Amino acid sequence: MSKITIRPAGSDDEIRKVFEIRREVFVVEQNLFADTDRDGDDFRSLYLIALMNGEITGVVRVFPTSDHAWVGGRLAVRKKYRGTRVGYLLVKGAMRLVKEKKCSSFTAMIQEENINFFKRIGWRPFGEILIYHGKRHIWMEADLSTGEATNKTQARVRRPDPSLTGPLPLPGLQPMRNGNHHAQRT
Q1: Which residues, 6+ apart, have CB-to-CB distance to 89 below 8 Å?
Q2: CATH topology classification for 4-155
Q3: What are phi and psi of 48, to 5 degrees?
Q4: What is the pTM of this model?
């Protein structure tokens, strides 16, 4: 198996590739969004990419909701690279990154079919199943108390240029008073 490297997206071209892979997975493959999955959180997000043989094979974003609370999302792995540990390594890399940022609460809205994957790597579900863009999701929280923040991911973490993302609203998801989001209940 080829070596998988997880690191922050480091150029505008890599940020464009992030959005390309997300579109491939969430718009074309899963039909979760009509045209784009970009939203207002993209501008404040940090992006991690997975590389195999110089090719970006998967992506994930993280963004702060307060000084010590972060949200992960848009974990996308190209279809031909699923089952290669890319998703696992991206999630672990995201957990390391938010720990380095002094995060104490790291959550994500997870598609129902991925709950067991996240449970195996130390996440726990909370709340009820929600419908988000026609698909069942649940909020989960990472156990950040395990492991050390090693293999630092801090080097040159880039936020995307606003012209690459645009402030698009996130349909079906409304902000709550605490800065988190909620979706329609089933």
Answers
A1: 4, 6, 50
A2: Aminopeptidase (3.40.630)
A3: -110, 145
A4: 0.79
